[in-house]
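Cross-posting from the modeling subforum.

Setting up a comparison between two proteins and wanted a second pair of eyes on the formatting. Protein 1 (sequence, then structure tokens):
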Amino acid sequence: MMAPFLTIAEASRLIAAKKLSPVELTEACFARIRALDSTLHAFICLTEERAMADARAAEARAMAGARLGPLDGIPIGHKDIYATAGIPTTAHSKLLEGNVPDADATVVRQWAEAGTVLMGKLATHEFAFGGPSFDLPWPPARNPWNPAHFTAGSSSGTGAAVASGMILGGTGSDTGGSIRGPAALCGLAGIKPTYGLASRVGVQPLAFTLDHTGPLAWTAEDCALLLEAMAGHDPADPASADRPVPELVAGLGGGVKGLRIGVVRHFFETDHPASPGVRAGIAEAERVFASLGATVRDVTLPPMLDFQACGWVILVIEAYAVHEPWMKTRFNDYGELFRDRVALGGLLRAADYVQAVRRRRILCQQVAAAMADVDLLLTAPAPAEAPEIASVPKWVSLEKPSFTIPFNVTGQPAMSVCTGFGAGGLPVSMQLVGRPFEDALVLRAAHAYERATGWREQRPARAA
């Protein structure tokens, strides 16, 4: 019999009170994996022996009153672009089959030191970009709300595993939306922190100046717990910000009274019209925030297409730079989607990249000016409910502009938060965006919204 769904915060309190055994919690999660993962394909590799050892150690600490912190004994998974010492790390690609790193990624080490229980490595789009692909050594992850539908990517396995309760939280990465997309389509909370807040050392790069590491979990509170444990300066990451670790959990209960929230309405009404379900969820979120004492008004940013053109050029050129040696020698070992998308980067000119970098600085200035008299932005993270997985086009990112890449371009903290359910009973979400290094404010507003609504009480029926 599987344990009922628990958030990280709930499980942590029960473990601290000696009312929940980390060993029993871990066993319950493995039971859920055995029941569901043959359909959802969230995991590439299970680490059951390691997990049970982690759980027994956490239980011993709990019984001795010596817990390492709120994550001690919590089952988690790592996206399979995070290096794990002695455990395969494949990036979901034939090119890295059999790759076993000698050292952990910085974030993997940080979470291990916090006492987390490593359940395994999670599916991703190939090298965090090529998906959903059906020509790779492992199948793509599927959406727990309806397995015929897409999880979004590239943190696809993390989205599926958390939504279905196979783990309580996990790592993602976000270069153009790869945390916020799966969070939106799988009905989770997922935050792309400020660029430089969390280390990327030991994480397979996609585009150096756009890559972010961050967590996905069921609630904003859980994301705060996870992000606080992975934030901090890492001298080995040249983009790492040399700042103290922010207090993300302590201020969660501060509410939104007096906050000024700017709705970027033209993104989801004009630039890329969103589905009725997405729009209805955002309209209700506006009402909720206003009822909690926030001031809500419209804000205008540059058109989404400006961010898309700038971000896409930078992304594919930087990705090509990472993969050029293999692209030249092992082109056909990549899946079709990855190789065709990244090959574009080899056809663009140095002048194109320089102009995109120049435009990026202008866009950052324009967003900062638009936020001069608002504290947060609110917009959509995805245009609609999850599509069927077999219908996702190869060039989906070029057909219409992305709601998420604008904030990779600017590097600001941005978070997906579930706002209910739309067509087919599939989740819909909003995106909250803060000024650089105001991650705590984004999480605080998300937490206030979740506490004022009932969406966190609903889980996928197939996972119950």
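Protein 2 (same layout):
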Amino acid sequence: MKRTLVLLTAGTLALTGCANMSDTQKRTAIGTGVGAAAGAALGSSVGGSGGATRGGALLGAAVGGIGTYIWSQRMEEQKRAMEQATAGTGVGVVQTPDNQLRLDIPSDISFDVGRADIKSNFRPVLDRFAQTLNANPNTEVRIIGHTDSTGSDAINNPLSVNRAAGTRQYLTDRGVSPNRIAIDGRGSHEPVADNGTESGRSRNRRVEIFVAEPQR
């Protein structure tokens, strides 16, 4: 009965306490509350004593709050700065459900067909992006290159990696530590539009950049 009461109470607090919270705070609170409830149940089943239950709840709370990115004021400022820098360019700037900042950069401003050279109108975007990264050194960056389905994997897979690598090099040339930036290439395997049309292929030739601030 006590275990059930602890579980219900922790879950209720995690949910009802979210009324006036931001989305980030809600996710953290719910995760912590659920972790505390699970920890309380674990502690009770293992030890059965009040001390064991308390220890389990604290452990569960810690586990519930670990493994998520935070959306700090610096992340919000970086998002606003990139929205201003990319206004009217077609670049998408969004906060993902797991608190990453994602930039979707279409081919018409980033790379020519079959090339990994950064186009001139992509450079001001990356210049401003490098400034925001240097202003928030606690973040991690992932750059993922994509192609359309024209050509074989033998061509598209390395091309997508080279586009990500070229973007990373441009950023590191502007003071961003290369140790913060991971790259990957997905070739034509993750389309966001129909490869049967030119407009769809253009959308699929893209670079995605993810910025995340881990919990410390």
